[in-house]
């Protein structure tokens, strides 16, 4: 165990209770990223309600599995952030092609938006995505990114919403089917 590990392990209880500065927590996170030992320690801390554990104890198989769970959780979080970015990107792309011949791509883009929206919002995507669509559509017309009339904003939002709903339904059905298989 090197010095950095000792420092990180000492700070872990404080870190878990968010009692460290931003810089310190970034330092700890950076270290946890590259150090499986400390990462395992972190999950043990969490499990034991912050009771310090005996160091150098043999890591059990169960504990070995913990960091993996953490990684899975982190991946979920990353997937959410990526989905968010993709949604915004696709919606923008969709709207920017609204006043030209690429408009037909939206019949593919908008269902994709629906799928990613379902990943993030689950079924509340049914009202959150239309709101997002309306907002971006409105901005796009206000700032003149696309050449549509104000009245067209609602029309296009409605059209895109239909395609987005198709995407949400597809994602929901796929999840339902996968769950049944298990
Ligand atoms: Zn370490």
Overall number of structural domains: 2
Mean pLDDT: 82
Structural class: mainly alpha
Summarize the amount of helix as a percent range: over 70%
How many strand units?
0
Low-confidence stretches: 50-57
Kindly report how far apart the N and C termini lie: 42 Å
- Which cofactor or ligand species appear? zinc ion
What string gives the helices and strands in order? HHHHHHH
- In angstroms, what is the radius of gyration? 23 Å
Put simply, the count of helices is 7
Beta fraction: under 5%
Broad shape: elongated
The major sheet is characterized as: none
How would you describe this protein?
With 182 residues, the protein is an all-alpha fold. The protein is 77% helix and 0% strand. It has helices spanning 3-16, 22-34, 36-47, 61-96, 106-121, 125-142, 150-181. The relative contact order is 0.08. It binds zinc ion. Residues 5, 8, 31, 35, 37-38 line the site of zinc ion.
Which key phrases capture this entry?
182 residues, mainly alpha, binds zinc ion, 2 domains, 7 helices
Short structural summary:
With 182 residues, the protein is mainly α. It has helices at residues 3-16, 22-34, 36-47, 61-96, 106-121, 125-142, 150-181. The protein has 7 helices and no strands.
Give the helix/strand layout.
Elements (H helix, E strand, L loop, with lengths): L2 H14 L5 H13 L1 H12 L13 H36 L9 H16 L3 H18 L7 H32 L1
Helix pairs in contact: 1-2, 1-3, 2-3, 3-4, 4-5, 4-6, 5-6, 5-7, 6-7
Zinc ion binds next to helix 1 and helix 3.
């Amino acid at each position: 165990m090197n010095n950095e590990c000792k420092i990180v392990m000492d700070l872990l209880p404080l870190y878990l209770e968010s009692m460290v500065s931003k810089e310190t927590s970034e330092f700890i996170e950076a270290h946890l990223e590259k150090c499986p030992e400390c990462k395992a320690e972190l999950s043990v801390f969490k499990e034991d309600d912050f009771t310090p554990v005996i160091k150098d104890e043999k890591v059990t198989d169960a504990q070995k599995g913990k960091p993996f769970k953490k990684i899975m959780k982190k991946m979920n979080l990353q997937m959410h952030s990526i989905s968010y970015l993709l949604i915004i990107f696709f919606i923008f792309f969709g709207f920017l092609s609204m006043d030209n011949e690429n408009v037909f791509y939206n019949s593919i883009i908008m269902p994709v938006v629906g799928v990613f929206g379902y990943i993030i919002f689950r079924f509340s995507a049914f009202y959150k995505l239309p709101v997002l669509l309306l907002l971006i559509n409105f901005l796009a017309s206000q700032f003149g990114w696309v050449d549509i009339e104000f009245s067209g904003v609602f029309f296009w939002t409605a059209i895109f919403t239909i395609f987005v709903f198709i995407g949400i339904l597809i994602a929901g059905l796929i999840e339902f089917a996968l769950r049944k298989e298990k």
